Amino acid sequence: MIAVIDYRMGNLRSVQKGLEHAGVPGVVVTGDPTEIRHADGIVLPGVGGFYGAAANLKEDGTWGVLKERIGEGVPFLGICLGLQLLADIGHEGGECEGLGLVPGACERLPAGAKIPHVGWNTVEFPRESPLFSGIEESTAFYFVHSYHFVPADMDVAIGVTGYGARFVSAIQAGNLFAVQFHPEKSSKTGLALLANFGRIVEGRHS
């Protein structure tokens, strides 16, 4: 079972439908910590602000469970805000503690770039990752964001995008994967990425 985390922000059903259209079985939308503890894979999507999302995750009792399950090696996919929340700290809506699972900070896009960044943009691959298996470099994905994750160590970057300046648009740290764009809104290529994540989850339990 893959748990899409419901923390009362964003259109979670579109992520669920995207995974299902990609052929990924057993997808549920849940905010129940008990269900999350039994999930084989976890997806943390997000549309909204860092501060409010962190507050909701803590209030719902899923904040600690996420850290626990990722630490246990459960495959994890963060989408958009779900990537940013992995940081040590965020600056959207006021300074706020992040999950602290990947060292770094969530910062506003650089001055001079039109905010928000909305639309299709290409992703370059600094290193190989199973998340992008079968997907060509410089493929375009759909973005909607004003903030981005700035890692303390660029070795985690598996995707980089240029918008005003180059920023990290995808990361991998062991079993943890996350992307700044929305694969569920990125046509066939996005579905291919979601299918890859499904295979990563399946591979851990085969």
Shape: globular
List the strand order in the largest sheet. 2-1-3-4-13-12-11
- Major sheet summary line: 7 strands, mixed
What's the SSE pattern? EHEHEHHEHEEEEEEEEEH
Q: Averaged pLDDT, please?
A: 92
Percent range of helical residues: 25-40%
Strand content: 25-35%
State the end-to-end CA separation: 13 Å
Round the Cα radius of gyration to an integer and report it: 15 Å
Helical region count? 6
What is the number of E strands? 13
Indicate the low-confidence ranges by residue numbers. none
The structural class is alpha/beta
Short description:
By secondary structure, this protein is an alpha/beta fold. It contains 6 helices and 13 strands.
Overview of this protein structure:
By secondary structure, the chain is α/β, with parallel strands linked by helices. It is 28% helix and 31% strand. It contains six helices and 13 strands. It has a seven-stranded mixed β-sheet. The longest helix is centred in the C-terminal third of the chain and has 18 residues. The radius of gyration is 15 Å and the shape is globular.
Protein topology:
Elements: E1 2-5, H1 12-21, E2 27-30, H2 33-37, E3 41-44, H3 50-60, H4 63-71, E4 76-79, H5 81-84, E5 89-90, E6 96-97, E7 104-108, E8 117-123, E9 139-145, E10 147-151, E11 157-163, E12 165-173, E13 176-179, H6 187-204
Parallel strand pairs: 1-2, 1-3, 3-4, 4-13, 5-7
Antiparallel strand pairs: 5-6, 7-10, 8-9, 11-12, 12-13
